[in-house]
UniProtKB/TrEMBL annotation:
This is endo-1,3(4)-beta-glucanase. InterPro entries: Beta-glucanase-like, ConA-like_dom_sf, Glycosyl_Hydrlase_16. It comes from the Eukaryota. Keywords: Glycosidase, Hydrolase, Signal. It comes from Letharia lupina. SUPFAM superfamilies: Concanavalin A-like lectins/glucanases (SSF49899). One of its GO terms (biological process) is glucan catabolic process.
Amino acid sequence: MYCSTFLVQAILLELCAAGYVLETSYTSANWFDQFSFFTSGDPTAGYVNYVDQSTATNNGYINTSNGLVYMGVDSTNVATGSGRDSVRITSNAAYNYGLFALDASHMPGGICGTWPAFWMVGPNWPNDGEIDIIEGVNDNANNAMTLHTSDGCSITDGAFTGTLTTSNCYVYAPNQSNNAGCDIQNQNTQSYGNNFNSNGGGVIVMEWTSSDINIWFFPRGTTPSDLEAGTPDPASWKEPVAQYQGDCDIPSHFADMQIVFNTDFCGDWAGAVWGTSSYCSSLADTCNDYVQNNPSAFANAFWLINSLDVYQSDGDVVAVSHVAVSPGGHQRNETAPLLSAPLAMGGGLPNPPGKRAMRRGRSTMGGNGIK
């Protein structure tokens, strides 16, 4: 919180500008009560079978042991039907603005065939926007952060440490691959996949305000003391790895966003770029073949999360959240109909093949995003 001291009528008054206060802390104690399980077919053509909470629990794909949230995939059986069993969850709460701090010790990335993501999406895609905070495919070593919007939102290269690869956030922007969005790549190889995991993970923070969207990554052991103390002061931190501002009216393009975690396989991105990785393509002719027949390869395809803290500005009346679920509290297991609107999951290589038709039908219905 920023403070200035003034002498008014011989009395010292401390006037403090708005700071961040904790709104919700998602931990192992409440995690699966705060999220719903998505069980529809994958709209991005992934070789995946998203299971309900009961199946995930019984098969050992999820647990909250030792104060940690574990979300994994089937690493035992040869896959059949629509694909390998996995988990996709969507927060019951939707948000407008805020600071979102994920402390994770392990992610599913860096494994051939995988397409994990931690992202946020509004109910009417792309008009209400999408923010991809963690995303990558196959043996990528760098995190991709991407926005997807309706027309009229583009960003400029500025005071951030990542590499801007595409600047127009519009999903049908001319001179960009369909659904490329505005993408920034983190050049720190500890930001994703194997190196992230071997370093014990870290904290990734996304700040969404009415003027810009910023993302920081703090490898394990480098988290700012104010954030660790629960009093985040982003103005005191180093430059963000990604900053989205420019010719984009943020309030017009991002609204009522829900939090999503998922681990997909192959599909419109990981499958489409399979041949561009000499290592992955040496393992099998196609992504689907590899994912289907090599269950043990995915033993490390799991999220291990310490916490996800959501802060709201104590001076911004529009920084609110609400529960976006139907009667009966949260809906743990839902099958949402696909919509006709295109779906974009964001991030990745600049103009990668396979992002041309990614994430068809992206929207949220009944508290479940369709990615």
